[in-house]
């Protein structure tokens, strides 16, 4: 299942999601090395370097053999990488109420506000539900990240708790909303 997911190429109306591959690091760096993107994220280093992008791509290539690693997909439009969306299997914990798949994403600033992340996330989620028996998919965002919480709300995610999460780029603990998307809710909204 995981291997099949890792190799998937997912087409949506305007986008193609494909596994990250060698050679993607410069495009990842170009979109990701932006404080307006970084300030909403928890784990990347800041300042961000091309070597960090290369290392992220390398870890992603290992993801088929390392079950703890996130499966990362390039979000491409007309063959250009414009962002990343990842899915990983996570144990239940403070920021996820049950074991299951968790999604995270970013999009280069030039591409915001056109519904592209909603489209990309719907594509990956539909594919993940189709390939797995998961009855829910988890996500979340820092409480101030209205755009991301809107993306999730449009898809059918429902907030279920608020925690405090460390943001490495901000070097601060920030309020974080945890959300879950039930399979039935997704299928109902998508229908
Ligand atoms: C969050 C992010 C992925 C959204 O991508 P996007 O393609 O612009 O999202 P969409 O256009 O599909 O949907 C965004 C929604 O939020 C709304 N929105 C955008 N910015 C907003 C803001 N500052 N305040 C309120 N609403 C906002 C949009 O109007 C849209 O809702 P609508 O369709 O009802 O009008 C993008 O802004 C991003 O990469 N941000 C930085 C990284 C990040 O936050 N990643 C997620 C971490 S949880």
TrEMBL record:
Tell me the ranges covered by the N-acetyltransferase domain, including all copies: 15-171
- What would be one Pfam family of this protein? Acetyltransf_3
What are the entry keywords? Answer: Acyltransferase, Kinase, Transferase
**So which domain of life are we looking at?**
Bacteria
A GO molecular function assigned to this protein is: kinase activity
Among InterPro entries, the record links this protein to: Acyl_CoA_acyltransferase, GNAT_dom, N-acetyltransferase
The entry assigns this protein to a family as follows: Belongs to the acetyltransferase family. RimJ subfamily.
This protein is called what? Anhydro-N-acetylmuramic acid kinase
């Amino acid at each position: 299942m995981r291997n099949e997911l890792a190799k998937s190429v997912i087409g949506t109306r305007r986008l193609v999601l494909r596994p990250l591959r060698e050679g993607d690091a410069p495009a990842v760096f170009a979109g990701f090395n932006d404080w307006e993107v970084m300030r909403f994220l928890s784990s990347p280093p800041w300042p961000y370097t091309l070597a960090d992008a290369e290392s992220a791509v390398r870890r992603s290539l290992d993801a088929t053999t390392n079950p703890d690693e996130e499966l990362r997909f390039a979000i491409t439009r007309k063959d250009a990488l414009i962002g990343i969306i990842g899915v990983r299997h996570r144990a239940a914990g403070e920021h996820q109420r049950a074991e299951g798949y968790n999604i995270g994403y970013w999009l280069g600033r030039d591409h915001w506000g056109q519904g592209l992340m909603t489209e990309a996330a719907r594509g990956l989620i539909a594919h993940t539900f189709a390939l797995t028996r998961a009855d829910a998919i988890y996500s979340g965002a820092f409480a101030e990240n209205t755009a991301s919480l809107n993306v999730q709300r449009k898809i059918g995610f429902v907030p279920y708790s608020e925690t405090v999460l460390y943001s490495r780029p901000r070097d601060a603990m920030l309020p974080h909303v945890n959300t879950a998307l039930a399979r039935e809710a997704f299928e109902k909204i998508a229908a």
